[in-house]
Amino acid sequence: MKITNLKNASAISGGKASGLGLLNKMGVPVPDGFVIDDTLSLEFDDENVLQLQRFLNQLNPNKKLAVRSSAKAEDGASKSFAGIFETELNVNNDINSVIEAIKKVNASATTDVVKAYANNEEQIMNIVIQEMVEPKISGVMFSEAIDINGDDVVLFECVEGLADKLVSGSANPAQVIVKVKENQLDETSLRVEGNLLDLSQLKNIFPFVNRIKQLSDRPLDMEWCIDKDGKPYFVQARPITSTVFINKNTRNAGIVASRGYAEGESYVIDENKSDEEIKKAIDNFPKGAILVAGVTETLYMPAIKKAKGIITEEGSALSHAAIVSRELGIPCIAGYKNAIKLFPTGTKLVLDASNGKIVANGIEDSLNTKKSFEFGELYCFDNALKVDFEDFKVFFELTYGGLMLHMASDDAIPKNMERVEKYARKVFNASPEQHFDDKYLWYFEIERFKKLPYYNAMNQKMMEIIEKKDSKLLDAFYTDSLEMLADLIHYKMNGASDSEKLIIDEIGAATNLILDAMLPLGYALRQCYFDSIDVCKEYNLSFNDLFIDNDLKIHDSKLILIKNFLSSVANNRNDVYEKICSIGATSPEYFEFRDDEVIKTCGYDKDATIDSFYDSLTESDFETIQFIMKPYMEKKKNNDSMVRRK
User: Between the chain's N and C termini, which has fewer beta carbons within 10 Å?
Assistant: First the structure.
């Protein structure tokens, strides 16, 4: 049997022991103890018992002991095994009690929970035995985290007494957030959120945190405690498996513990049920469901591995559910009160943890303050900033509703989301609301469309009409645009060159974007919303009331003008897409095949795209097309319509 003092522990003895050995070498306080290697094959014969007793004699006989796992794969850079193995606390310092505790920890290495978490990999178990500390407060600390404004901070989560209730998620902790300056804690920036605790002695641990930040070559997730005399101790250290982003506390106490998006039916596992009922619920957990639980016990791991997302009634950003969900890359909202009652098994859920929203059977409950208007969904593109992350692109949008992020859903993998989140907090001092929608695709189309003749002029005309809210001008704009497309299609079928045919197809797609999206679902809605908001408040109306086809019984001229204009917007948009398709200016499949058309028409190689075509265009390619379009873009002197080409 190999036994090593924790001061000399290395990676051979597993993640937990090596982490404690690292802390010892840094000169920070760690409770005295030792580690036993390869305990699964250990036999307690006379020789081994005698050796174990010799090490126990080196510890304080008046202190209780903690007997904890230190498996070979535990506390690694990719897998934490947080809460997976058994821990025995307050063990008497006598040989029989310690042997019994070792056997219990060993037994936890072969459970179904471990097999599910580790994908059936066989475990090599080592066991740490340490003197217990009787803590006044304890908790978990991340030596690196990102605050809501992008600041680098250290995050402490604190509870009274032992930290096991924090890690299990059975207690909601106080959060202490301390800004980092020049790799050291800035005590003047300390802020506390959540439960009120006596944290007067917390600063006793700060000098050792500073030492750890200075000496460690990686960010660490650490358990700590402060005893009744104010002396701090570190009892665990492991690499942080994913970046922690701090989100503001929310009105219903639910917090975003792991960002992401999932849809599925809820499935409840209630720890208040009998052991038999809980086991049955775990065994029957359907793949792809959203787990709803009071807390996430480690025995839930077979279910967690099948889940698309997690909602817990208790817990924090550093609870077991939070850590494991971040490792698995699934969304998690923790501390959501009455979740089991609100979302019984079979509830259709949309879990949008990135934006702090849960939609249950079509009814939305937002963790953040609800907005009366979703600016991020509007087809407006005038406040967008494109950011190229080399292997993927996003665009941010500054709106009156906050900072919006638009990106391709295929790119929204955890490592990319971390990079985007860090960028947003550093640059904008805000965490963005995320949208995975067609707006992302249209943004890059618009960058191309701007090169087309009169595209920008059409946008300008659209904005002038919206500003005036003139329904007659709006009707004329739709009519003239459709007639212009009809003339272009006629030319396409009768004499246009191959290059001109492709340009006309692009003009059709661009005009469709303006008439079917940007005007009705974007700029008109936004302008009317702002122009009506004060008047609506005066009459105790919502913006949505203006879309109702009945009489509001209000004779305010401004509100009537807006309501009538919105009605015209809706009427014109009603069948415009079908009309554009019937003219032959676009089709539902247009964007699927246009790169193939470019390759076939222009003779490009198989890697060519629509961008290749745009890059090849010259002024001469637009001459005839501009001649056809020009009359539609010119205004009559009385400015009430566009002139139609005779």
Answer: C
Nearest partner of 613 among 592, 628, 629, 597, judged by Cα: 597
> In this structure, how many other beta carbons lie within 10 angstroms of the beta carbon of residue 240?
19
Q: Name the β-bridge partners of 399.
A: 402
The CA distance from 562 to 49, in Å, is: 87
DSSP 515: I
Note the pLDDT tens digit of each residue in 548-563. 545 667 788 899 899 8
**Residue 470: CA atoms inside 13 Å, Cβ hemisphere, count?**
15
CA dist 36 and 14 (Å) reads 10
Residues in the chain: 646
Do 28 and 224 touch, CB atoms closer than 8 A?
Answer: no
Look at residues 212, 224, 296 and name the one whose alpha carbon lies nearest to residue 258: 296
Look at residues 272, 312, 271 and name the one whose alpha carbon lies nearest to residue 291. 312
Q: Locate the domains of the chain by residue range.
A: 3-131, 135-239, 255-366, 375-445, 450-633
Chain mean position to CA 360: 19
Contact yes or no for 192/199 (Cβ under 8 A): yes
Q: Strands (DSSP E) along 330-477, which ranges?
A: 332-334, 348-352, 357-360, 363-366, 384-388, 393-399, 402-407, 433-435
SS3 for 427?
helix
* Closest CA relative to residue 254, chosen from 344, 332, 192, 176: 332
SS3 344: coil
Tell whether domain 3-131 is in CATH 3.30.1490.20. Answer: yes
Residues with Cβ within 8 Å of 551's Cβ and at least 6 positions away in sequence, in order, are none
Which tens digit of pLDDT belongs to each residue from 145-176? 998 888 899 999 888 888 776 666 666 788 89
83: left (phi over 0), alpha (psi -120 to 50) or beta: left
| 90, pLDDT greater than 70 | yes
Instruction: Domain 135-239: give its CATH superfamily.
Output: ATP-grasp fold, B domain (3.30.470.20)
Q: Tokens representing 626?
A: 């501009």
Give SS3 for 139.
strand
CB contact at 8 A, 268 and 340 = yes
For the segment 444-485, what is each residue's pLDDT rounded down to a tens digit?
999 999 999 999 999 999 999 999 999 999 999 999 999 999
Instruction: Using DSSP, state whether 487 is helix, strand or coil.
Output: helix
The CATH code that applies to domain 255-366 is: 3.50.30.10
Contact (CB, 8 A) for 106 and 200: no
DSSP code, position 123: P
Q: How far apart (Å, rounded) are the C-alpha atoms in residues 213 and 218?
A: 8
